[in-house]
Amino acid sequence: MATEIDLVHADHEHLLHPLYHPSAHKTPIVWVEGRGAIVRDITGKEYIDGLSGLWNVNVGHGREELAEAAAAQMRQLAFYSGYVGSTNLPAIHLAEKLAELFYPSINTFFFTSGGAESTETSFKTARFYWKAVGKPDKVKFISRMKGYHGVTMAAMAATGLPAYWPMFEPRMPGILHIESPYPYRFVNKTPGVSDGVAAANLLEEAILREGPETVAAFIAEPIQGAGGVIPPQDDYFRRIREICDTYEVLLIADEVITGFGRTGRWFGLEHYGIEPDIVQFAKGITSGYVPLGGVGINDTIRSAIESVPPEKRWMHAFTYSGHPTACAVALANIAIIEREGLVERAAEVGAHLNAALKELEEMPIVGNVRGKGMMAAVELVADKATKEPFPPSANVGGRVQQEMTARGLFTRVIGDTICIAPPLVTPVETIDRLVQIVGESIAAVSP
User: Fold this and answer.
1) Which of 232, 346, 354, 378 would be 181's cystine partner, CB 3.0–4.6 Å?
2) Per-residue pLDDT band at 195 (split at 50, 70, 90)
């Protein structure tokens, strides 16, 4: 039997990992098992899963129901093409179910294998729509700094995290960024206007600068995730919706992280009382058990797709769109979320999580604690009064991460921001232990 050393050597020899550099992968953890909110490595050590795998294991690890759903579908029909002219039962039933769950105006769905494919689908669909309705010059996209939409070529260009760009330049043209609403750091330069409206008005300025006749869509996460868990001001998205309507710009909601209960609602924009024109999803739809994503489109866009002549059809496709096994797992996953009341639980336990983390703001280097539902962040700063960050050379976030891992909490740290998004099934006592570890780890590296 291969030893841990043998396995790590084989990993180094044959695997490239996401965001790869060998300096960051000298001693990888070899994961072997998960149950609920706990994961175990090859040495037998257990950890609290502080990020639900990668924001996605909403129903927790080790759910036999999902393994059984996959196995049953594989025995019957593991895969068949869902290209036009073909369909399958799980894809039909999943689309029907999503029409019940999503925003009222979103009733039609296309399935992908993940979030980046969903972003590419949203962008192509937006361009298609404007060509179909006679406005072919509307081809540009506006995104936000600190937004994350994937790292395929168009998705990477929309992602507002510059670290992802340099070695893959030039980026796809026609994609620009505005500032994040980032309540902790946003500087409002418009007297008499709320911070949320002022941040949203940056979209209007960008549209007018580019020319409304050239802008196809604005893409935004209801809560920015990989940028550091940033909920916007409460009035931000209402103003965004007004601006999109005024200038005929489609609103794309990236619900890849916020969908399927993560924030205490089925979908994130429900908190803000608006509906998007296109919504994209992945991660929590199957709780990560098999890859699946997709986009939902409103009835107006659906009508445009159906109105064009055959030679101008929506010529977009993926081999695995509507994958029967993935759709069967998604249906079983949604059934668990409904049966166990996990959306409501995320709101209740998430409030406890955020309140407990908020107490850490008393610590000398904790500048800001923020979140919504089972999604939170703790931002560390060198000076609480000025919000001055630590210099990168201090590696404060990395050192805190090492301390958390040593204490049995595995999660992601982005710069000096600790991200927390445990499974929706996480027991309250485990939440309390998680918060305790975060506090102990911060204290361990405080100057």
Assistant:
1) 232
2) very high
